[in-house]
Design brief:
alpha/beta; 8-stranded mixed sheet; 6-stranded mixed sheet; 21 helices; globular
Length: 649
C-alpha cells in the first residue's frame, strides 16, 4: 500500500515509490526507527517490483545519509561555494533573475530539466514556474531516447508498448541491444517465466554481458552494425517467405522497403554487421514463427544513425505481422505520461537541442543566455563534450542547481539549493518500463532547511510576484489537479493510488491492436532509405561505449564509478596492459584509465562505466563530441572512436 504504515514495538514500515531515472519505478518498503531509515527492501505487493530492489536502490541509504549530502544552500563568494541561509540564496537568485529579465528579457534565461526525478509534480512545478517567468529558453530533443521515440512516431504514430505481462504471450523474444540485468532488472522474473513455458529468447548486442545467461542464442554484431543486420534479416525473410502474406494491408512502402533491402547483397549486409548468415537466419526464423516481441535497447539509438536503426527494427516487426497482436510488438518505451493533464503553458521563447547544450549556450545571441537553472539533472557529466558544457555554465552570470549532492554541475553553479530525496517527498509517478501508476510518499522528514523543488519554486515565485495557484496547497492537491481529466474520467482517483499502484486504464493491453496504427492513414510507415556508412578511422580502432552498471545509472549511483575509470577491452587490444594504467583518447581529449581484459568482448569496443565524475577524470563524456542523431535530436553518444595506448610521461 503506497503510503501505508504498519507499526510494531520496534519499527515502523512505510511504503513509497522510487522516482529516479529507471524504467521500473519500484515499490519500496522502508524500515524506520526514530525518524531514520535503517533498511530498504522491495514491495512484495507491487506487481513489477515483486519484493526485490536493484543494487542502486537497495543501497540508496549510503547516499541518503552520506555526510557530504547537501542540507544548506550554497552561494558562490570569492570563487568558492559557501553555505548560506535559504533566504539569502533566494534573494540573490530573485535579484539576478529580475535584473536579467529587465535587461534582456526571458529568452536570456535557460531552464534545463532532466530525469533525475521522474515525478510529475516536480516536473510540472519547474515547467510552470518558468512559463510564468517568461516563457524562457528550454531544451528540445532528448539525450537518451530522442532518436528511438522519433522513429516510432514516424513508423507507428505513437511510441508505447503493450502491457508488460503481454510478454508471456510471445513465442520468441528478441532482446535487441538490451541488457535487462542492468537496465530493466524487474523484467527478469517475467522473462524467466516466459522461458519456462517455452518462449525462446535471443539476444543481439555487440557487448557481452550478464543477459547472455538468459538467452537461447547470442548474436554479437559489430558496433553500429544493427541496421545492416536488420537488412540481412529482412533479405532472408523476403527470400524464404517470412513476410506476412497480408503485410501490404497494414504497411506503407513495402515495395520500397524491399528495394532498400535489395540495394546491396545479403553478403554485403552481413559483412557490414560482422554476423554469419546462420546467425541472421536464427533471427529471421524467430520473426517468422510469431508471435514475436522485439525489446529494443536504447543504446543503439544513441548513434548517428539511431533513428534508422530503430526504424529498421520497426519494419521487421511490421512486415512479419508481429505488431498489433498479443505477444507481438516492437517495444521501445512505455508512455508514462499518458492521461496526466499538464498545466497550461505557452510556447517557449527559444529552444536549443539538449545534446548540444554547451556549444549552444556559448553560441546563443540576441539575446545571449545569461542565466541557467538546472532541475533534476547533471548535464556536465551526462551530456557529451563535458568540458565545453562546464565552461558554458561557468561563463554565465547566474547558474542555479537544485540537487541533494554536489555534482559536477553543482561545482559550476553560483547557487545550489538542496532538495529532497526519493525517501522524503510526495509525487505522482508513471514508469517507462510498465504502465502502472502510483504515488510516492515521504517515509522520513527531510533535514531541516531542505525543501522540495515545488517549495523552492513557490518561494521564488512569491519573491518575484508570480502567481502559481496550480502549485499551491498540499502536494496531494497538486497531484489531484494532474489526475483531473482523462485519468479521472477513466476512474483513477488519488485515493486509489494511495492504496496501491494501478494499471493505467488508458494504456492499451495490446499496442496497435488489430494492426491499426496512429499514423494519419492508419498504416505503418516503413523505412525506405539507408543511413550514411560510418567512415573508417584506422587511428582509433575502438568504439567507445559508456554503459550503465549494477552500481550506477547515469550520475545516480549507490557506489561511484572508480577513478581512474576502468576500460574493459579484449586482451588482443592491449595484451600487456591488463590491470595497468593507460591513455584512452578520442579526437576530443584523453582520459587516464585502468585496463581490464575480458576475452568475451569484441576486439573493436572499449567499455567504460557510465556516470563518472568529470572532476575525477572518470567521465566518458569528456571524450565524446556533441553530435545529434539522425532523428529526434538525440545524442550520438556511442559513435565516438578511441584508441588505447600505454601511459607515458
Amino acid at each position: 500500500m503506497a503510503g501505508g504504515i504498519e507499526t510494531t514495538r520496534t519499527k515502523t514500515l512505510k511504503k513509497t515509490l522510487c522516482n529516479r531515472d529507471c524504467p521500473d519505478s519500484c515499490g519500496i518498503v522502508a524500515e524506520v526507527e526514530e525518524g531514520r531509515v535503517v533498511s530498504l527492501r522491495g514491495d512484495r505487493e507491487h506487481p513489477v517490483t515483486q519484493g526485490f530492489l536493484c543494487y542502486r536502490t537497495s543501497h540508496f541509504l549510503r547516499r541518503q545519509y552520506d555526510a557530504r549530502r547537501l542540507t544548506r544552500p550554497l552561494l558562490r563568494r570569492g570563487g568558492q561555494l559557501v553555505e548560506v541561509s535559504f533566504g539569502e540564496a533566494l534573494d540573490h537568485v530573485a535579484r539576478s533573475l529580475r535584473r536579467i529579465l529587465d535587461e534582456d528579457g526571458p529568452a536570456a534565461i535557460l531552464h534545463y530539466r532532466s530525469g533525475g526525478t521522474l515525478g510529475h509534480v516536480t516536473a510540472e512545478a519547474s515547467e510552470l514556474f518558468f512559463d510564468r517567468l517568461g516563457p524562457v529558453t528550454v531544451k528540445r530533443g532528448d539525450i537518451c531516447s530522442g532518436a528511438g521515440e522519433a522513429a516510432q512516431l514516424l513508423d507507428f504514430g505513437d511510441c508505447d508498448s503493450s502491457r508488460v505481462e503481454d510478454l508471456l504471450a510471445a513465442r520468441h523474444i528478441l532482446l535487441w541491444g538490451k541488457n535487462v540485468f542492468t537496465s530493466s532488472p524487474h523484467l527478469l522474473p517475467l522473462l524467466k517465466r516466459a522461458a519456462a513455458q517455452g518462449t525462446k529468447i535471443l539476444l543481439v548486442d555487440p557487448v557481452h554481458h550478464a543477459t547472455t545467461r538468459l538467452a537461447d542464442r547470442f548474436v554479437q554484431p559489430r558496433p553500429a552494425g544493427d541496421f545492416a543486420l536488420a537488412m540481412a534479416v529482412a533479405s532472408l525473410l523476403f527470400a524464404r517467405g517470412g513476410v506476412h502474406p497480408q503485410a501490404a494491408d497494414w504497411c506503407d512502402g513495402l515495395d520500397d522497403f524491399q528495394r532498400l533491402v535489395e540495394m546491396r547483397s545479403r553478403r554485403d549486409w552481413l559483412a557490414d554487421a560482422d554476423v554469419s548468415e546462420e546467425e541472421a537466419l536464427a533471427l529471421a526464423d524467430a520473426l517468422a514463427d510469431g508471435p514475436t516481441t522485439i525489446l529494443v535497447g536504447w543504446g543503439m539509438a544513441r548513434r548517428l544513425a539511431g533513428g534508422h536503426i530503430v526504424r529498421a527494427l520497426d519494419a521487421l516487426g511490421a512486415i512479419t505481422g508481429n505488431v498489433g497482436i498479443p505477444g507481438g510488438q516492437v517495444s521501445y518505451y512505455f508512455a508514462r505520461r499518458r492521461g496526466v493533464r499538464p498545466f497550461e503553458r505557452r510556447p517557449p521563447a527559444r529552444t536549443i537541442p539538449e545534446p548540444l547544450l554547451g556549444p549552444a549556450i556559448l553560441d546563443a545571441a540576441d539575446p545571449p543566455i545569461r542565466a541557467v537553472w538546472v532541475t533534476a539533472g547533471n548535464p556536465v557529466a551526462m551530456l557529451p563534450d563535458s568540458a565545453t558544457t562546464r565552461h558554458a555554465l561557468e561563463s554565465r552570470e547566474l547558474v542555479v542547481v537544485v540537487d541533494d549532492w554536489r555534482s559536477d554541475t553543482a561545482d559550476a553553479a553560483d547557487v545550489v539549493f538542496p532538495t529532497t530525496t526519493l525517501l522524503e517527498d510526495h509525487d505522482l509517478l508513471g514508469a517507462y518500463g510498465h504502465h502502472y501508476l502510483g504515488v510516492a510518499r515521504p517515509v522520513v522528514e527531510p533535514p531541516e532547511g531542505v525543501k522540495s523543488d515545488r517549495a523552492i519554486f513557490l518561494a521564488l515565485g512569491e519573491a518575484l510576484g508570480l502567481a502559481l495557484p496550480e502549485l499551491e496547497g498540499e502536494a496531494r492537491d497538486v497531484e489531484a489537479r494532474l489526475l483531473a481529466g482523462p485519468l479521472a474520467e477513466a476512474g483513477v482517483e488519488l485515493a486509489d493510488l494511495e492504496r496501491g499502484v494501478v494499471q493505467n486504464p488508458l494504456a492499451p493491453p495490446v499496442i496497435f491492436e488489430g494492426r491499426r496504427f496512429c499514423t494519419p492513414n492508419g498504416r505503418a510507415q516503413l523505412v525506405t532509405t539507408a543511413p550514411p556508412a560510418a567512415p573508417p578511422d584506422p587511428d582509433r580502432p575502438l568504439w567507445l561505449m559508456s554503459l550503465s552498471t549494477p552500481d550506477s545509472q547515469s550520475s545516480q549511483w549507490a557506489k561511484a564509478p572508480p577513478s581512474p575509470a576502468t576500460v574493459t577491452v579484449h586482451p588482443d587490444v592491449a595484451p600487456d596492459l591488463d590491470g595497468e594504467l593507460a591513455c584512452l583518447s578520442s579526437v576530443l581529449g584523453q582520459l587516464t584509465v585502468r585496463v581490464r581484459h575480458d576475452p568475451k568482448q569484441r576486439r573493436d569496443v572499449a567499455l567504460v562505466p557510465k556516470g563518472g565524475h568529470l572532476r575525477d577524470g572518470a567521465a566518458a563524456n569528456a571524450l565524446t563530441r556533441a553530435r545529434l542523431t539522425d532523428l529526434g535530436e538525440g545524442g550520438a553518444l556511442y559513435d565516438e572512436r578511441v584508441r588505447l595506448d600505454p601511459l607515458t610521461g
